[in-house]
Structure formats: structure tokens, C-alpha cells
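Why does residue order matter? Because the sequence determines the fold. Keep that principle in mind as you read this record.
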Amino acid sequence: MAPSDDAHKTDDISHDGLLDRRIQLNQPRKGYRAGDDAILLAAAVRATAGQTVLDVGAGVGAVSLCLGARCPDLHITGLEIQPELVALAARNIAANKMASQISIFQGDIRRPPPEIGQAVFDHVVCNPPFHPAGRNSPPPDAGKAVAHGEGDTPLAEWLAFCLRRTISGGTITVIHRSERLGTLLEGLGQGAGDIVVFPLWAASNKPAKRVIVQAKVQGRGPTVLHPGLCLLDGNGNDTEQAQAVLRNGAALNLITIP
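Structure:
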């Protein structure tokens, strides 16, 4: 259903764009806001035409929309706990004319709807809350607090859910803070292998604050540390490689090591 005129007039929603504004994105002005992380995560998924993808913690649909724009023949299902974000995701799907590709359902990993809890997918993608419960003061905005803090659902439980929902031989792709890498490797190692750690360097002289981790369910190969992607050059501008992904929608290659 297309967004109403009244919905467009609200001061609580901003109208943004991703992939050089090829993707229209309605999202709350306050709270968690989708941006480059969503684009980078979508770019890392090794999906091909006709496959199915589950977007866990879908928010307003940013990852699903970016993935759908790059791979138009996918069937993408999203799971999001906050009903107001599910409503915005539906608006975004309609605005970008992807209703035949993407469906977002309300629920959480402990109580998923049957469309998700009774299904498995070729690929699962996840941008889980970054902060462990009690580690940081929660943001004053309730929606942002849900998106950023694990609450009573730790990261290990998110990863276990992703493992259950992925077919044997399928991939799980997660973006997270680099300081949580140990938990990511331990959790994914409970049922997956062939793990690739892909650092996202803010600049060549700065530590990587984010990592993308991808694993193959029932894989038996070793863990590989990829050179990753440097996002900014010495002048603070997007590197050529980052611009190709963030503006032009190129894929990230987590298979071929440069």
C-alpha cells in the first residue's frame, strides 16, 4: 500500500535514499537509522537468482531493499520486532516497487511467525544489536534502545537462530562491531565453517571498528581473515572500492582473496 499524504507530512519520519538515492527509504528521524552498514551487509550476501534470503532484524527494510536492487530475482523475507518499523518497511517496499520480492513480518527470534519459524532459507543476513545487556547506558529513544541493545536476547541466541533457519550449505552473513568478533566466531562455529572475517577499515591508519563475518552452514573449511575494505582515503573521501559498493551497488567479494 502506498504511503498516505498524512504519513508524508509527519515530522517524525525522514525520506532518505541509499545507493545514490536509487532506493527510497522512509525511516524515523529519531532512533536507529539505516545507512552504510545496511548497504555493506547486503553487498556481502552471495545470493543468486531464485534463492531465498531471511533478513533477521530487518528494521525498515534497508538491507532487504539493497539486496533486492542488486539481485532482483530473489525471494526475501524479513523479521522485525518493532511493529512501527514493520509498517515503515511495508511503505518502503511499495515505494521501491519490490512487493513481489520482499515480505517483512513482525515478530522476534524467540517467537517468529510460522512463515519464518517453520521455514529454512538459502541465506540468512543479520545486523543484530551491537551492545551486550548492561554494558552501555541505553539511548533515551526506545526504538534505538531496542535496535542497539541486546536486552535479554544475547548475541549467541541471534546466531543460533540464524543457524536453525539456514539450509545445509547456505550462508549466514553478519555485520557487527569488531570487539564482538570472538562471540561471532564462537556462535557461528556451533554449526558452520568456511568462515570469512571481512574487516571494514575506516581508514588505512585506523583500526577496523566493524567486521562482516560470513559462514557456510555445515561447512568444514578453515576460518579466513580477508584483507577487507578501506572505506575512506587520506582526504576523508570514499575510496574507489567503497564508492563502487555504497553508491553504485557493487557486490563485495568474500570468496576471492585479492
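Confidence is low (pLDDT under 50) at residues 1-9, 141-149.
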